[in-house]
Amino acid sequence: MLKLRLKKFGRKGLPSYRLVVIEHSSKRDGKPIEELGFYDTLSKRSFFEIEKIKKWLHQGAKPSPTVYGLLKKANIIQN
């Protein structure tokens, strides 16, 4: 099963995350199928490729609870 989840990058004390499509059994920082955007926790900046995200959701990828909240806040998911 495919999941939309966050992949951590950045240095110690300054985390940033990439939104990726990845197999649900892969490690947090494993190789993604595709990168769909990023989220910076410190400055609360984010960038999401909306068309690609909607494509993966339509194909059956499930977002993690954290990603679901971010997508809902960005008005990509309407539930």
Task: Summarize the entry for a quick read.
By secondary structure, the chain is α+β, with helices and mostly antiparallel strands. The chain contains 2 helices and 5 strands.
Describe the structure.
By secondary structure, the protein is α+β, with helices and mostly antiparallel strands. It has a single domain, classed as S16 Ribosomal Protein, Chain: A (2-Layer Sandwich), CATH 3.30.1320.10. It has 2 helices and 5 strands. The protein has a 5-stranded mixed sheet with strand order 4-3-2-1-5. Strand 3 and strand 4 form a beta hairpin. The model has no long low-confidence stretch (mean pLDDT 91).
List the helices and strands and how they pair.
Layout (H helix, E strand, L loop, with lengths): L1 E10 L2 E10 L10 E7 L4 E4 L1 H9 L3 E2 L1 H9 L6
Parallel strand pairs: 1-5
Antiparallel strand pairs: 1-2, 2-3, 3-4
Characteristic terms for this protein:
single chain, 79 residues, S16 Ribosomal Protein, Chain: A, 23% helix
Oligomer: single chain
| H/I helix tally | 2
Adjacency order of strands in the biggest sheet: 4-3-2-1-5
The H-and-E topology, N to C, reads as EEEEHEH
Please count the beta strands (DSSP E, at least 2 residues each).
5
Looking at the structure, the CATH topology is S16 Ribosomal Protein, Chain: A
Structural class: alpha+beta
Average residue-wise pLDDT: 91
| Percent helix range | 10-25%
Q: Return the CATH architecture.
A: 2-Layer Sandwich
Largest sheet: 5 strands, mixed
Uncertain spans:
none
Tell me the number of structural domains: 1
- CATH top level assignment: Alpha Beta
Overall form:
globular
| CATH homologous superfamily label | Ribosomal protein S16
Relative strand content: 35-45%
Gyration radius, to the nearest Å? 12 Å
Q: How far apart are the termini?
A: 22 Å
